[in-house]
Amino acid sequence: TAELEIAEERADPDFQELLEKVRAEVDSESNTNNRQEAFSMFSNPEVTRKLAEELTASNYIDFASVANLTASEGEVLLESIVSFYDERYQMLNLLMQGNLTNDQAAAYFGPDAMTSNLAFVLTTDQQQSLRAYNLQSSRNAALTVYSSMLDPSGALPKRDTEPMLNVLLDELYSAENNFGSLVSTDGSMKSAYERKLQALDRAQARLRSEYSESELMQFDRLVESLKGTVDVVLEANEDASGSVNVRNMRISSDSLPN
Fold first, then answer.
1. How many other C-beta atoms can be found within 10 angstroms of the C-beta atom of residue 91?
2. Please, which residues bridge with residue 244 across strands?
3. Are 154 and 13 in contact (CB under 8 A)?
4. pLDDT computed for residue 3 by the predictor
5. What CA–CA distance (Å, rounded) separates 132 from 164?
6. Which of 20, 76, 143, 251 lies 20 to 30 angstroms, CA to CA, from 1?
């Protein structure tokens, strides 16, 4: 079993190398110490602040103009987003240790966590815009990782892979699947995982009506690789040069704390 690791690598045409570094699957017992050590990094406020600033700069700068915010309003919002992610990263260590109540978990990792925490700086319409913007950002990160898993060599044309990936992402980020949140509305990671399995089944069922068994062979392999694991962190940030940095922490579903 591979040790839990953090992958923060530049996207590269050699998708297999990216895939090997990004995927971190953990055995619930033999790698407990490794898992705890990896998540303990989120106890360092300097680390969590840096991660929050990078994520916000990459993914949310444009939201201020989308939401028609003034310059000062945009600054307040972006600082609030940094603070939210800073706290969320720190809470992640507690979540994985099983030291959060379900209500606390839902407040930071549930489907409405971000908009609820930022309600004090946003109107109702702006909250809805942020929810849609954040959902698209999450889908984009998943697309970066899952496309390399579906086609590690990058040899298949996008016209063959994109329809399948769109169906997969539609289901994984649907309301029925809590918009892809780490915990369900009840604050449980286990409940969220059960919803994820149902979403994967729906995606396969939809595609079976459109593709042959041979055409779905690689997609089915992707789905099987997503079963039994949970992406605790799945982020893709674009830097100033346009390169994409992927950060992914994945654990076994047997390791879920609540």
1. 20
2. 238
3. yes
4. 38
5. 22
6. 143
Residues composing the chain = 258
**Tokens for 258?**
């609540």
pLDDT digits (tens, 9 = 90+) for 243-252: 778 888 888 8
Cα–Cα nearest to 176, from 155, 160, 192: 192
**pTM here?**
0.81
Burial of residue 158 (CB within 10 Å: 0-12, 13-18, 19+) is exposed
- Residue 194's identity, in one-letter code, is E
d(CA 61, CA 42): 24
Q: Which ranges constitute the DSSP H helices of the chain?
A: 15-22, 32-39, 45-59, 63-66, 71-96, 102-109, 113-117, 124-150, 158-172, 189-208, 217-226
